[in-house]
Amino acid sequence: MDPLPNPAPLASKLRNTLVRYHSIGDGEWRVAKKTKDATVWRKPSEEFSGYLYKAQGVVEDVTNRIVDHIRPGPYRLDWDSLMTSMDIMETFDENCCVMRYTTAGQLWNIIAPREFVDFSYTTSYEDGLLTCGISLDYGEVRPSFVRGFNHPCGWFCVPLKDSPGHSLLTGYIQTELRGMLPQSAVDTAMSSTLANFYSDLKKALKT
């Protein structure tokens, strides 16, 4: 188990990585799934043998409220059907922490429940916010879970210029679920999970 990293350089590196993903040209992405709430694309990840996913959709609400529902905190567990528990293990400041969370089984439990320990950081980006994270090898692995690993992930949320009550939410996710899994099952689950994330989030913001 690694010691906790120094948060400032890790946060800076993480932000720079996400901004670089955000500048990848449209031609490099392939559509993986399209719903009324979001479009999901993917491209081979530079970090591991799976895919980097990009999800994008317009959400009717202000940027701060949307990000408060996504980042670690009391809202997330209420609406995210995939997340089954979340504990803040360390807090560096109000926008930077280490959290441990667990996810439900997926695809008729072909994908068993997973546990993640992530460094999370929220910062300003243009007129909006970026909330991002990366997994750490920290804390004891609980025997009833497979420990997954999130390579640099994040959500950019910026207000629409011509419609300030709406925001453009763009996510970059690359999750290594680990364990013995057929890659096709992982790819199916990831695309559907990201599309469902938008519909679940929209419902939560309306309540």
Report on the structure:
This protein has helices at residues 7-22, 63-70, 74-79, 183-206, and strands spanning 30-34, 39-44, 51-59, 83-93, 96-103, 114-125, 128-135, 146-147, 149-150, 153-160, 163-173, 175-176. The chain is an alpha+beta fold and 207 residues long. It has a single domain (7-23, 30-205), classed as 2-Layer Sandwich (Alpha-D-Glucose-1,6-Bisphosphate, Chain A, domain 4). One of its GO terms (biological process) is cholesterol import.
Give the structure's gist in a few sentences.
The chain has 207 residues and is an alpha+beta fold. Helix content is 26%, strand content 41%. The mean pLDDT is 92.
Question: Which CATH architecture would you pick?
Answer: 2-Layer Sandwich
Shape, please?
A: globular
Distance between the termini: 41 Å
Remind me, CATH topology? Alpha-D-Glucose-1,6-Bisphosphate, Chain A, domain 4
Characterize the main sheet: 10 strands, mixed
CATH class annotation: Alpha Beta
Fourth-level CATH superfamily: START domain
Task: Give the strand tally.
Answer: 12
In terms of topology, how is this protein built?
Elements: H1 7-22, E1 30-34, E2 39-44, E3 51-59, H2 63-70, H3 74-79, E4 83-93, E5 96-103, E6 114-125, E7 128-135, E8 146-147, E9 149-150, E10 153-160, E11 163-173, E12 175-176, H4 183-206
Parallel strand pairs: 6-8
Antiparallel strand pairs: 1-2, 2-3, 3-11, 4-5, 5-6, 6-7, 7-10, 9-12, 10-11
Short descriptors:
two-stranded antiparallel sheet; alpha+beta; single chain; 207 residues; Alpha-D-Glucose-1,6-Bisphosphate, Chain A, domain 4; 10-stranded mixed β-sheet; 12 strands; globular
